[in-house]
């Protein structure tokens, strides 16, 4: 009968050497045998004895060095002139059974550093599989664990993440184009969709996640495009202008360079408050009348606002002393503002905001929209909602995305804490609308304010962010700093690697050197959701997103394939992808 493996009694064949130097989180191992040194690989794992026989230090090999010195005349042994040194970064502690536990377990706390002369052993083969199995068992505390794939170092061991920690502490998925980033996101979305009471919103900027809507618990909506305004289908959503906060609305329509901008902002504020008051009075909502503010999501007539501003712009007053008529205090102050607002309202690209039907101007539309966006999975509703923003103009995209995010956050904030249900926001191509503060324009600055608040306070109210980006160096640092889980696929750009390494603990900084060498679909996973920083081969999702790179050379080499350019031109004119 084959003896049972024991990590606390590893076979001597795995012996590496002895400790010759100990730092705050690093250990150096002296290796006397060149044959043993050949088995040692950078990024491999070792376990080192400590003064406590029931505690082992687990480390990652960072560097392997072989140095030869000039022969010493006083020495007859050539080996004395060779210094084989292995640098190890401490990752955590492996504890033996005890304290109510029947099996060994791993913790990321480094409780005991080894003494000089302590023995070091390689984690290879069956011992590595046993160790990764302990990691998986320790992580998979829920009935439905989050699994991304398998460990590259132990293909038979499933890589399990702590789903609670992954979403509680926010997460990032980063990787260059073609690295398998969309596959990874699709894999995560599929597993969330498989949960009984899931709740997730995916911001899909290019329509690439449409194939996932074939899943029984995933539905897809589209923000209304120019072709949807007259006869919208059931999957089309409008985001009425009255949902915008005061500052968001001004960022959309106010030109800050206009010398009359302060007067315009003040008068617009008063006009909106008056219009909202009129709307609430018409609905006989007395309680809301007592407490509403300019930011309250209350429908109001933009025509009434324009009418009031027009009167101010044309107002003339009579001088009581002379009896002469003079221009009013706001006369001519809106000569540029009103045409700008009219242009926004008539632009069909902005129709999802302004070209509203009667039902989108009713008080109940907010209930309808919140139910569509935030209803968790039931027998009659899907928990994962993919929202296609591909037809939203890029110049207002940050405002529109932040509108949805802010609405979700506010609903969660005002929900009863006893019945509040957590929800995750998947922010695809986040670098397009969550840039660094210095590079943000007025619209992006407003969007950042909302997302930064969610990043810092979302956990209290059950709102999680999953940030997806191919350019982490361009992402907002405040949002990034709150992401305590990082799934990093291949990154070759130096600034992007640097941005990711800034999120890693000091003793894991060397991991960034692996990023350019990762294969397609391989990722380094670091953070609160995984006990051990791991190189993982992502499992292929069942429903693959439309993100595959076009094989130019193969396409050009194949037999003639006719592209229907006339339909493309027709769709371009109509601003619709329908081929009817």
Could you tell me the CATH topology label of the largest domain: Rossmann fold
Termini separation? 71 Å
* Helical content band: 25-40%
* Broad structural category: alpha/beta
- The CATH class designation of the largest domain is Alpha Beta
Order of strands in the sheet with most strands:
9-8-21-20-19-10-18-17-11-16-12-13
Beta content comes to: 15-25%
- Tell me the overall shape: elongated
Largest sheet: 12 strands, mixed
Mean pLDDT over the full residue set: 87
CATH architecture of the largest domain: 3-Layer(aba) Sandwich
**What number of domains?**
3
Oligomer type:
single chain
InterPro entries: HerA-like (IPR008571), HerA_central (IPR002789), P-loop_NTPase (IPR027417)
Domain Helicase HerA central: 148-407
Protein name: Helicase HerA central domain-containing protein
Organism: Brevibacillus centrosporus
Draw up the topology in text.
Layout lengths: L14 E8 L3 E6 L2 H4 L7 E5 L5 E14 L13 E14 L9 E3 L11 E4 L2 H15 L6 E6 L6 E4 L1 H6 L2 E4 L6 H13 L6 E5 L13 E6 L12 E2 L8 H8 L7 H23 L2 H6 L10 H13 L1 E3 L6 E3 L9 H10 L4 H4 L10 H10 L9 E5 L8 H17 L9 E5 L14 H16 L5 E7 L7 H5 L3 E4 L5 H8 L20 E6 L6 E5 L13 H6 L7 H10 L6
Parallel strand pairs: 10-18, 10-19, 11-16, 11-17, 12-13, 12-16, 17-18
Antiparallel strand pairs: 1-2, 1-7, 2-5, 3-4, 3-7, 4-5, 5-6, 8-9, 8-21, 14-15, 19-20, 20-21
